[in-house]
């Protein structure tokens, strides 16, 4: 069982525990939303374009992403262990405070056009942001009952993508308030710095979280008895309790590696191939993320009809087909429309696979299982490096898009056996 943080006593009695968990869920949802807004402004399209403009290298964009991924790999594994051994609430508080220093460093680096300092600050931010996201997710799962998890994880994804849609809207406002609305370095600096200042309105919400015992139907059992019966079945000589989450993580990691080869370069692709302005790119981003939010709202209903694993397989395969369409089109509105649809489908698998993993593993191991995401973070950086290399060598981003689609089709096909195993 998890230790109880004595510095933040839970509300007394069953009703107090229930109320504390409701508060925790609400605050977690706000944090997922607000962090997505901040990331969309400070660390997405404008920051990548800024790095590209001051370095004149697609490969440099990928290299920095790789460094961030490696840093996440180094820190997330021990952090996952700490999340299972220490007080998760206290860990969240420490990480929220720790983020202040690299955020300030990044602000200074962007204002001074200091690429080396910016690389260091981005690596430090990765060291803090990755563990915070993972511990926050485990904390959310701790405060939800098993039968609620697919719903709440879907709502978490929905709010995250709503935040990622609100971010471009705010960025669009900042662009139109600027005297020069083209892809100028001063515009990029101002938008990125505004996003970094958003830290002051996000991380302090951690102080509103409360201690509560993990929500479960059988706190006393805690071990194997708390898992569903299907996880104890044996397939291929391996218990599903291990086979299903490991296979799911490998497949999920493969889709993320594939995505990282192309998605980092979407703003650069639309700017280079279609001469898309910052304002129009933000409109595409808003529509993309609103579509994702709507799909994540619908995901629990779709997965209830098809099964979570089948829904994940179909979402990934559909996204791959649409990505091939993006790579082959030369009309701006068609390419943008297919890209929006591609993201809407391809990312809708996340709450399904997360729910499958959390249902298959013991509560006391959740932190370590979420730390496995660190491997995906590192390989994401490697994928971005490959995508940048291909773009520099071919003179276009479409080769990376085709490679992304091909790999994701293979991942979807490889997951079919698990779709037959998960009820």
TrEMBL record:
Residues 24-423 form the Major facilitator superfamily (MFS) profile domain. It is found in: Membrane. GO terms for molecular function: transmembrane transporter activity. Its main location: membrane. Keywords: Membrane, Transmembrane, Transmembrane helix. The keyword Transmembrane applies. It is a multi-pass membrane protein. The chain crosses the membrane at residues 23-41, 61-79, 159-177, 183-202, 280-303, 309-329, 399-422. GO terms for cellular component: membrane. PROSITE patterns: MFS. The keyword DNA damage does not apply. Pfam families: MFS_1. This is Major facilitator superfamily (MFS) profile domain-containing protein. It comes from Cladocopium goreaui.
């Amino acid at each position: 069982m998890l230790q109880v943080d004595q510095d933040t006593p839970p509300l007394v009695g069953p009703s107090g525990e229930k109320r504390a968990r409701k508060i925790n869920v609400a605050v977690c949802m706000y944090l997922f939303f607000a962090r997505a807004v901040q990331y969309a402004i400070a660390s997405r399209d404008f920051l990548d374009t800024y790095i590209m403009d001051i370095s004149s290298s697609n490969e440099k964009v990928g290299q920095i992403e790789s460094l961030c991924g490696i840093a996440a790999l180094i820190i997330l594994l021990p952090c996952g262990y700490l999340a299972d051994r220490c007080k998760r609430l206290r860990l969240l508080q420490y990480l929220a405070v720790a983020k202040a220093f690299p955020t300030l460093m990044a602000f200074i680096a962007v204002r001074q056009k200091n690429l080396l300092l910016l690389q260091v600050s981005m690596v430090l931010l990765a060291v803090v942001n990755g563990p915070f996201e993972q511990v926050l997710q485990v904390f959310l799962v701790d405060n939800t009952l098993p039968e609620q998890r697919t719903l709440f994880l879907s709502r978490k994804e929905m709010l995250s993508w709503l935040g990622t849609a609100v971010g471009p809207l705010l960025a669009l406002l900042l662009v139109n308030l600027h005297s020069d609305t083209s892809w100028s370095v001063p515009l990029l600096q101002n938008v990125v710095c505004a996003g970094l200042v958003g830290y002051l309105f996000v991380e302090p919400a951690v102080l509103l979280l409360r201690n509560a015992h993990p929500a479960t139907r059988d706190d006393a059992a805690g071990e194997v008895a708390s898992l569903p019966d299907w996880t104890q079945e044996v397939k291929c000589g391996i218990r599903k309790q291990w086979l299903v989450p490991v296979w799911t993580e490998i497949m999920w990691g493969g889709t993320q590696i594939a995505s990282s080869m192309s998605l980092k370069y979407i703003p650069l692709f639309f700017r280079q191939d279609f001469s898309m302005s910052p304002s129009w790119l933000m409109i595409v981003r808003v529509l993309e993320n609103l579509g994702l939010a709507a799909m994540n709202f619908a995901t629990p209903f779709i997965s209830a009809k098809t099964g979570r694993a089948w829904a994940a397989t179909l979402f990934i395969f559909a996204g791959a087909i649409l990505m091939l369409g993006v790579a082959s089109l030369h009309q701006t509105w068609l390419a943008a429309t297919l890209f929006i649809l591609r993201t809407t489908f391809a990312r809708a698998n996340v709450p399904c696979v997360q729910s499958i993993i959390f249902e298959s593993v013991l509560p006391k191991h959740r932190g370590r299982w979420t730390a496995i995401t660190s491997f995906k973070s590192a390989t994401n950086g490697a994928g971005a490096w490959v995508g940048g290399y291909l773009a520099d060598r071919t003179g276009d981003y479409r080769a990376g898009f085709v490679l992304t689609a091909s790999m994701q089709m293979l991942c979807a096909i490889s997951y079919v056996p698990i779709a037959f195993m998960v009820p």
